[in-house]
Write a structure and sequence with these properties.
The protein has 349 residues and is α/β, with parallel strands linked by helices. It has two domains: 187 residues, Rossmann fold (3-Layer(aba) Sandwich), CATH 3.40.50; 144 residues, 3-Layer(aba) Sandwich (Rossmann fold), CATH 3.40.50.2000. It has 14 helices and twelve strands. Helix 2 packs parallel to helix 3. The radius of gyration is 22 Å and the shape is globular. About 1% of the residues have low confidence.
């Protein structure tokens, strides 16, 4: 898809927004930028077949992005192999190239390490090397990526490149994903087993609670979802994808507690949305969560999570009266817009 956006001035397009996986948070960010950044041209591919987008999007965009002498800045997510694109299109190489990491493939969870496709992480490293600015949505995302480069490159059998992290680090900045408040989300990486097993323990103890499990339904649904939905049927208020954002927000506003059991999270938009709607958050003491949530919202073990939820079942007023000490406004577009404006200015770092 191509869309030219005039923005706040009527001149020729100055910023080139390229998104190889136009869906979810990737789409939300591109939509925000094209709405608020002057003089953009937008080129996207639908959010399907992620692996093929990562492999081949650069070639596609090299043929579909027209030559335009007014371009000054190129912004893309790390799904795109930026190195390939600027090699195929030398006219884009002189632009200020900004690469945004929603997630990184060096630590993205796989069931077995041998299942990890080397090429995806390798492409991200190459893209960083040709970028002028490398932007991560959290310190956890940045630190985990940079600290993993050296061990990741050891997979190469010989003649390994050296000191790549030192070449990339000076280009790196952290700029949180801008969540649109109050317009208030894969499966093995979210650890549903811990979540449902904890709730089943609460049920066995005959504790009173109501449950909403929200999100898209995918083709390959883990068995734990099927069996738990049956066993927890009497406690379920909502299950699955809700047709409108308003309905989704209403469920969050009606809830008392939001739980994450993720084994993978580089930012956590859904948790912040729920907190913004008044939910008490319970998150793992790992990944990005300690960066955003104070210690009293973090649990270290499944037993701690179960104990906390058991207390809320017995005393729901504790969660309902609590005022969450997380300033969600820090992650709003209103707060972050000036930094994105600077990022997409023609000035190089």
């Amino acid at each position: 898809m191509f869309e030219a956006v005039g923005g706040k001035d009527s001149g020729s397009p100055r910023v080139l927004l390229v998104e190889a996986f136009y869906g979810g948070s990737h789409k939300q960010l591109i939509d925000l930028l094209k709405k608020n950044i002057p003089s953009c041209s937008v080129f996207t591919l639908p959010s399907k077949k992620w692996h093929w987008r990562a492999r081949t999007a650069a070639l596609y965009f090299s043929q579909t992005i027209p030559t335009c002498p007014s371009y000054r800045v190129l912004f893309s997510s790390s799904v795109l192999n930026l190195c390939e694109l600027v090699a195929l299109r030398p006219d884009l190489a002189h632009l200020k190239k900004v690469l945004y990491f929603h997630e990184n493939q060096l630590v993205y969870p796989v069931r077995k390490d041998q299942d990890r496709d080397f090429q995806y992480g390798y492409n991200q490293v190459l893209s960083c090397l040709v970028s002028d600015v490398v932007v991560f949505n959290s310190h956890f995302n940045m630190d985990s990526f940079l600290s993993s480069i050296r061990s990741f490159m050891k997979k190469i059998p010989d003649h390994r490149p050296r000191d790549l992290d030192q070449l990339i680090r000076p280009k790196c900045v952290v700029l949180s994903f801008p969540v649109q408040f109050p317009d208030v989300s894969r499966e093995h990486d979210k650890n549903p087993e811990l979540f449902f097993n904890t709730l089943l323990k609460l049920k066995e103890r005959q504790l009173n609670f109501q449950l909403s499990v929200l999100g898209e339904t995918f083709t390959n649904v883990p068995e734990i979802f099927v069996s738990s939905r049956h066993q927890l049927d009497s406690h379920i208020l909502n299950w699955g994808f809700l047709p409108s954002k308003d309905q989704y927000l209403q469920v969050l506003c009606d809830a008392d507690v939001v739980v994450s059991t993720s084994k993978h999270e580089f930012f956590g938009v859904a948790m912040l949305e729920a907190v913004h709607c008044g939910c008490f958050p319970l998150c793992p003491k790992a990944l990005v969560y300690p960066e955003i949530f104070p210690a009293h919202y973090l649990y270290s073990t499944p037993e701690q999570l179960c104990k906390q939820l058991q207390e809320f079942c017995k005393r729901p007023d504790i969660a309902r009266r609590h005022v969450v000490t997380v300033d969600t406004s820090l992650y709003s577009w209103a707060s972050l817009e000036p930094r994105f404006q600077t990022l997409l200015s023609t000035e190089r770092p």
